[in-house]
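Run log // design_07
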């Protein structure tokens, strides 16, 4: 659902850019509470994984395809604030390296696929996950939350286009078309999200941010009913380094982008199909970087899509890990400065 240049007028493009910038700024501060030495590289891996899976368009109807948005998945794995940053990194890499998503529409894309999708997905996930305990509830909640987040972002696009699109539309008709096709895409999003969350829960449940605190700790009591030895729940094991999980995740993302991408559907995605059917696809203009070799994932430069995907995974991983480690380092520096001040005051 990458919005191209030309769909929105200047006012909406600038306004959405301001909203996106403010949202990213807030999330940079919020991510300091979510990131530690373990989750910072994990967040970079999540960004690279989202980039890879977004290359895998899957058919949803005759002549229409969809792909993962990834906001809900990222929020469940690394937290909602960090998830918005993950999506911003992915969209920046796609826009500047692969001419995917307009540069003037970057604010719109971050707002829709980052802020809206993450906010809606995380809210739905928490509402469902809090009503039940256990891994099954987390997986079920991840499926529903991811499914709902996609049509929510699609309807937000429709509202923005009604306000400041470059072509007149019948908002009800376009909303029905966008909502309908993106519900189908949302089913795919939910399945991918649920499978991914379930897999990580099975091998490293401590790396699923959304599963923290969902299980009540087990407390052992003696014969008199007094607390004896608190026992850590198996749902919340002792934090440990990523270890083998990081290289394994990189291998999976590389295989998806480098191999599976050859089998992705070539049909237009949901937004492009609706734009064609409703007559506003002609408002799209060529990307400013459409002539570079990696544009359209290597098609412009004659680069195999798999190689372009591997480059994208590498760049996204490098940018993401660097960003999140910097945020983490700044957080740690702030804590150390605070402790020094407290020590002097004492």
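design_07 sequence
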């Amino acid at each position: 659902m990458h919005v191209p240049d030309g769909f929105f007028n200047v006012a909406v493009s600038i306004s959405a850019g301001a909203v996106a910038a403010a949202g990213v700024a807030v999330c940079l501060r919020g991510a300091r509470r979510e990131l530690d030495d373990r989750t910072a590289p994990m967040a970079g891996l999540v960004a690279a994984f989202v980039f890879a899976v977004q290359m895998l368009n899957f058919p949803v109807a005759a002549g229409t395809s969809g792909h993962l948005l990834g906001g809900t998945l990222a929020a469940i794995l690394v937290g909602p604030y960090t998830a918005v940053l993950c999506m911003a990194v992915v969209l920046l890499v796609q826009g500047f390296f692969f001419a995917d998503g307009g540069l003037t529409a970057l604010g719109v894309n971050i707002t829709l696929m980052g802020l809206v999708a993450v906010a809606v997905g995380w809210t739905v996930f928490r509402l469902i996950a809090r009503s039940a305990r256990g891994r099954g509830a987390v997986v079920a909640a991840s499926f529903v939350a991811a499914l709902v987040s996609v049509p929510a972002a699609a309807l937000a696009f429709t509202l923005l286009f009604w306000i400041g699109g470059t072509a007149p539309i019948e908002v009800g008709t376009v909303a029905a078309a966008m909502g309908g096709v993106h519900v189908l895409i949302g089913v795919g999003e939910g399945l991918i999200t649920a499978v991914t969350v379930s897999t990580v829960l099975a091998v490293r449940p401590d790396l699923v941010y959304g599963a923290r605190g969902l299980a009540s700790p087990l407390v052992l009591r003696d014969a008199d009913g007094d607390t004896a030895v608190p026992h850590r729940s198996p749902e919340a094991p002792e934090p440990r380094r990523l270890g083998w999980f990081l290289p394994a995740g990189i291998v999976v993302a590389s295989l998806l982008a480098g191999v599976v991408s050859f089998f992705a559907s070539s049909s237009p995605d949901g937004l492009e199909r609706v734009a064609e059917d409703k007559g506003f696809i002609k408002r799209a203009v060529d990307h400013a970087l459409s002539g570079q070799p990696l544009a359209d994932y290597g098609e412009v430069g004659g680069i195999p899509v798999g190689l372009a995907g591997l480059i994208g995974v590498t760049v996204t991983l490098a940018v993401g890990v660097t960003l999140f480690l910097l945020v983490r380092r700044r957080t740690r520096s702030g804590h150390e400065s605070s402790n020094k001040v407290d020590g002097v005051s004492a």
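The chain has one domain: 10-211+251-338.
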